[in-house]
Amino acid sequence: MSTELTGAEITIRCLQEEGVSHIFGYPGGAVLFLYDELFKQDKIKHILVRHEQAALHAADGYARSSNKVGVALVTSGPGVTNAVTGIATAFMDSIPMVIISGQVPTAAIGQDAFQEVDTVGITRPCVKHNFLVKDVAELATTIKKAFYIASTGRPGPVLVDIPKDVTQQKAEFNYPASISLRSYTPVVTGDVQQIKRAIQMILEAKRPMVYFGGGVILDNAAAELTEFVRMLNFPCTGTLMGLGGYPSTDQQFVGMLGMHGTYEANMAMQYCDVLIAVGARFDDRVIGNPKHFCNEERKIIHIDIDPSSISKRVKVDVPIVGGVSAVLKELNMLLKAGRETTDINALLKWWEQIELWRARDCLKYDRTANIIKPQMVVEKLYEITSGDAFITSDVGQHQMWAAQFYKFDKPRRWINSGGLGTMGFGLPAAMGVQMANPGSKVACITGEASIQMCIQELSTCKQYHLPIKIINLNNRYMGMVRQWQEFFHGNRYAESYVDALPDFVKLAESYGHVGMRIDKPEDIEGTLKEAFKLDEQLVFIDFITDQTENVFPMVPGGKGLSEMILV
Amino acid sequence: MENEAGALSRVAGLFSARGYNIESLSVAPTEDPTLSRMTLVTNGPEEIVEQITKQLNKLIEVVKLIDLSDEGYVERELMLIKVRAVDKDREEMKRLVDIFRGNIIDVTNKIYTIELTGTRAKLDGFLQAIDRNLILEIARTGVSGLGRGERILEL
Lengths: 567, 155
Hints:
Chain B: It catalyses: 2 pyruvate + H(+) = (2S)-2-acetolactate + CO2. The complex is a heterodimer of chains A (about 575) and B (about 160). With about 575 residues, chain A is of the alpha/beta class.
């Protein structure tokens, strides 16, 4: 006869069955029974953050860098509302996560009880799915469903809301080995006819272009993409979310595209005749004005797991719904087996054109300045870490410079909030990355505005001895806001200057970390080397940078990809 | 759709979040109590309707979705309408109800409550045919529909 377990025991057992090694959370009244069970076991390590938003970002960074489902645990009411920013961040970037939230007892639901919110209602628009578990007998199956839904198809966060009394009640524990849902059957392989049409189009292309996004990272398709691009000798560009999906140091990679993409990537994107979009979604920051984008005639092949991403902003000619990894494998196989080849002469001419665009050297900046140029910090960081570090970032200018100047050759090394654009993401995400990759170099490229949005996590870093390197590009401005105000609002810097900054060195020291501050370009390299030598300590390096530096190229909002502002 | 609490709000939330229109929506359990059938009427250019279809299909609780207007279909809506009916209006109203094949289901010396079933166009037609000033109250169920002939929505 099997014994009955409490809801709290069942929850923790489910997480163990799923192989969860770390959960990020913060206790509170509604989750006390769950924490009690966590206390009694040692298979799952709980990381205590200082604010629930950070729990979500840390679980998110963990998931992005490890290809596992990130797990967060928060209490009811404010625990959940604090977590919403982190849930929405993961949702926008399709990150597989399971969030367990406590809820007031079932009898109190709807009574405006202490720390009660309609969690399922509040999170509904920013989760892939959510559940309220009212019967302990359904708890294990629901958690199984949550992990299944979060990690399959187009991934995303799934929330399981568990009322306190359900964590006390008992039921038999049976964790299903597998699960199927009649209303959720994600496709994996692409339609063979469409794939054949795509191949014909690829072979006939005169000016082909491959454009890849976060789907390549999420579906672990970097190897397949690299094989595809190299076999065809096509140029390729990546979105902010796709970086690392193809080696950035390779000659066939023409840089990131989009609002702050390279001149050559944006021009090739605009003037190609066959565009192969792989796990990307043509969003506003990537193609700018869709009308302008469609002014040029080109054929588009779009590979994506999510049918609703296809023909949403730009009409495509060959839609292929499927996992990008499976579809690329099929394409590679058919291309290798086929006898036809690409139009090599046309391709050579196209490459000549691209090289002319590349020669424009759109990322150049003043390397002789006697104040610190933020780009140089990222370049030096790249050199010193041999391009092999995990880099997280916050949101703004520093994020764009990180994306432009750190050449990611591997997937899952570049961790940033691309969709929601969440300031405060970088430091807690770095905690999750470091937890998932102990012993690896982890740096958080941030700015003095972003870092202050989750600065309290320096305390968490101390508790768990996380030797993250914080690269604070301190220009005393919300740099990207300042840049837009300079370009589009007549230099009126409304509320974008950050006054009364803390002494970051002392702040870091007060949390028991190492703080450094430099303001001379010649000190960048030495300081970074010194920081990375301290491989057991968090080092906060405050770089006092050029206040007026702007991110170039720039496609202004509403403009077309070829209408870039250049240096 | 799965007959579960919250499924309806996911659909309604999707429409408001993405700025789509709901003209009418009707939902009730089917012969299989674990399933509900929802008939939703919306409008928009072809690309938008395509997006709506795809977005709805992404909802975990949506089991199967068809666009009835892709092929032949029948639709019916029920309207209950309360009108002022005194003096000469009483006869005129009765005559119109007969023409539209409705029923008067409640009567007082001042009021008729009328039941009318049909396509949206027919119900709208009735409303246009009667004197607007006589209308006291209207309750419409929203449209339900089925494909014509052998066309069946089944799992």
